[in-house]
Here is the input.
Amino acid sequence: MTRSFLSIRAVRKTFGAFVAVHDVTIEVPKGEFLTFLGPSGSGKSTTLYAIAGFQDPTSGDVLLEDKSLLSVPSHKRNIGMVFQRYTLFPNLSVAENVAFPLRVRRRPDAEVKRRVADMLALVRLENFADRHPGALSGGQQQRVALARALAYDPPILLMDEPLSALDKKLRQEIQAEIRRIHRETGVTILYVTHDQEEALHLSDRIALFKEGRIEQIGTGEDLYLRPASEFVAGFIGNSNFLPGEHLETAAGAATVRLADGSIITGLTAAEPFSRGQKVRLMVRPEALSLTPGPASTALQVDIVDTAFFGDRRRVVARTASGDEIDVRPTSDATDPAGAIAGSGRRIYFDPALAFLFPA
Amino acid sequence: MQGNSSRRGSVASLAAGSGSALPALLLVGLFFIVPVVALLLRSVTDPEPGLQNYAALFGSGTYVRVFLNTFLVAAVVTAVTILVAFPVAWMLAIMPPAFGSVVFGIIILSMWTNLLTRTYAWMVLLQRTGVINRTLMGLGIIQEPLPLINNLTGVTIGMVYIMLPFMILPLVGTLRAIDPMTLRAAALCGASPFQAFRRILLPLSLPGIAAGGLMVFVMSLGYFVTPALLGGTSNMMLAEMIAQTVRSLLNWGLGSAAAFVLLVITMALYALQLRLVGARRTGGGA
Here is the structure.
């Protein structure tokens, strides 16, 4: 077995009776981009703060290359961090901000100069060296913060929702920068966000947090294509949920009866269900199509609304039992709108992108 | 940005309210400017026209010593006040507002308590047979009473105590504007608590320290009650000297000259501070 790099072992944090983090365990290999994703208050930031040393876990341990970090104060952990708020030192210029971690480590002047130039080139802010943080835009400030955090070549870079204060266009721009910097430096990144698109865009792996626990950890594909729970399915990507009843499971393929009476077969069940158990069928909008397929995957619907988005359409359909379904057919994008409208239509879905969860 | 808008606001309200400011301006003119001019005139006319009062002031070793001592006391008091006030101000800046307002209330309350009462209280505490000396002797820490009163120590203790609110209040304002996350960032950058203080927190709090420091220094220069009660004859301060000159010696000319010199020095210091702070602002904002 290879030596572990960053190891978060059964970290637990309580505030009085409230348990913010329940025994979180994660192994992070060197060079990985791991994202902690989850709604606010799910414990993702608390876990990050335990690694940074801002909050001591109630129990558990954090090890870097087999040495515990917990007894090491923040300023000796050698960890880089970019914060949600702008935390540049307002009394120092951009270059002095980036030089700060090197100056406190008493590195020789020539090295500091070279390193600052390299870092500012990395975040493409060479021409801003003598500005003060107050004269920079939010996006530029976060790029300087990134340069500062990487200046002393830390083994781990923590990022706590660094883009949440920026507008959408700027966010995408800096996401691309972060990906490039991760590729170029090979630094291990732990990234906290509540934005699933950001997580999918950036990460090698995603740990999805819910109420202080990791609901599922895996690649973006794992979470999207093989969600472990209804929460994961609902949090990552768009989903339709249809209530129904489990009839039987044979050879791994489940059969259900939906609320409108239609029988669907060949479904993957997340866990064994008993006969007659209430279930919810989750279907991705892009797994639905108006192109005819097998009858075992057909739903009888009325088309309520269609909208054209250029590369795809969005169709809102309604079943006889009144459940609304969001359909995003790509293959039908060239169909004239009239062919999609109307009542008594059938839509078909790909069973590989449909999952059964307990109700 | 905030400073700019509030500055613009105050200029606007100044223009709008200039009519109603007239009584106050008259009051200041009549009861401040006129006496200062009278003071100046008296110092060069009493007992006869000429600069003999100023010559006496700067020619006599005694008076020069009083001036130097006044500056020494003011400087020591200012320095000690900054040292004592900073941790309190920092605590007030980072503590939850509900707690903070209680501590703030205690500080303000001390300002509202009669100055003479507070100074007499210090006499009770500091004198040879006072509470402090008796306690220390009772505990066997000292054999002889410490000289805590009628000297620089007594004046410093008493004045620092009175000046603290004037230092804490401007400092809290400056420190509250500093995001505590900035200091966490400094820590993760590898700065020890001392390095974070010296390189980040201290530079960022300098405007507050300068504002509070100047206020304390200027107030200390002209302070009368506390130095008179807690100080000794060997380190008399200027205000006490003026009082003696006028009251006991009835030498109004010399007293006026001393008061005028104090005023000029104070104004010079204020102008100097304005220049220094102004220079830093334009330099830092570029």
